[in-house]
């Protein structure tokens, strides 16, 4: 802050004018000068700067007030919209209740129809089961009769087939036995002839071997005799 000019003479004259003597006026002047010298007082520039700041603060306050007014209007608009939504929700609630009532009535009617349909369907199913059971029993009886007849015919055919097969097997066995007997007889004959022929050949070979051995012995004897004479 700037210094402020102080007129000490005028201050002293003023004190003496109101009844202070010179000593008192001097003491007060000294005390006031001391206190006034240590204090700081705002100058005109300081006051002008302060006024400018106050003006700026005032404009800011006005701007804030304008914004607050705008916010108030927005809040009022939102409240109005909320009220409108509340009324719509109430309207929707009433519609939902009406629809629920209709649905309950419709479901009740549908349940009644389902119960009636189930009752009728049960009666039809019972009637159908009765008819099906009768047909199945009749069909089963006919099938049993056919199976018995078929089984009887099959048994007769199997017996006839078995008898024919047995006769054929016996005939085949007899023929095979005859053929085996003839084959055995033929084999015995051939084996006898072969044995006779082999015996004859063996005797002829024995004779030949005996002759050859005799010749070889004679040659050996002659050779030995010759060697004896030489030595």
- Fraction in helix: over 70%
Q: Measured on Cα atoms, how large is the radius of gyration? A: 79 Å
- Estimated structural class: mainly alpha
Major beta sheet summary: none
What is the distance, rounded to the nearest whole angstrom, between the alpha carbons of the first and last residues?
A: 185 Å
Sequence stretches where pLDDT stays below 50 over 5 or more residues? none
Q: Based on CA inertia axes, which overall geometry fits?
A: elongated
Strand content range = under 5%
The pLDDT mean sits at 77
* Total number of strands: 0
Number of helices: 3
Order of helices and strands: HHH
Transmembrane segments: 209-228
Organism: Candidatus Kentrum sp. UNK
Protein name: DUF1640 domain-containing protein
Keywords: Coiled coil, Membrane, Transmembrane, Transmembrane helix
Features of the shown structure:
3 helices; 93% helix; 0% strand; elongated; DUF1640 domain-containing protein
Structure report:
The protein has 231 residues and is mostly helical. It has a domain at 1-41. 93% of the residues lie in helices and 0% in strands. It has 3 helices and no strands. The chain has helices spanning 8-17, 22-38, 44-230. Helix 1 (8-17) crosses helix 2 (22-38). The longest helix has 187 residues, at 44-230. It is elongated, with a radius of gyration of 79 Å. The mean pLDDT is 77.
What's the topology here?
Blueprint: H1 8-17, H2 22-38, H3 44-230
């Amino acid at each position: 802050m700037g210094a402020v000019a102080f007129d000490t003479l005028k201050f002293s004259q003023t004190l003496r004018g109101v009844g202070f003597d010179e000593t008192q006026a001097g003491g007060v002047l000294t005390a006031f000068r001391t206190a006034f010298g240590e204090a700081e007082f705002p100058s005109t520039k300081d006051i002008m700067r302060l006024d400018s700041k106050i003006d700026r603060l005032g404009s800011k306050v006005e701007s804030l007030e304008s914004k607050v007014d705008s916010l108030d209007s927005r809040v009022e608009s939102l409240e109005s919209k909320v009220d409108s939504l509340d009324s719509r929700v109430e309207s929707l609630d009433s519609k939902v209740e009406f629809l629920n009532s209709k649905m309950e009535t419709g479901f009740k009617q549908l349940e009644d129809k389902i119960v009636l349909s189930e009752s009728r369907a049960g009666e039809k199913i019972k009637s159908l089961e009765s008819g099906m059971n009768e047909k199945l029993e009749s069909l089963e009886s006919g099938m049993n009769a056919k199976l018995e007849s078929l089984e009887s015919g099959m048994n007769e055919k199997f017996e006839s087939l078995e008898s024919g097969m047995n006769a054929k097997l016996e005939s085949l066995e007899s023929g095979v036995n005859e053929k085996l007997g003839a084959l055995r007889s033929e084999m015995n004959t051939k084996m006898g002839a072969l044995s006779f022929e082999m015996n004859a050949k063996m005797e002829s070979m024995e004779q030949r071997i005996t002759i050859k051995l005799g010749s070889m012995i004679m040659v050996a004897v002659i050779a030995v005799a010759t060697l004896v004479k030489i030595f």
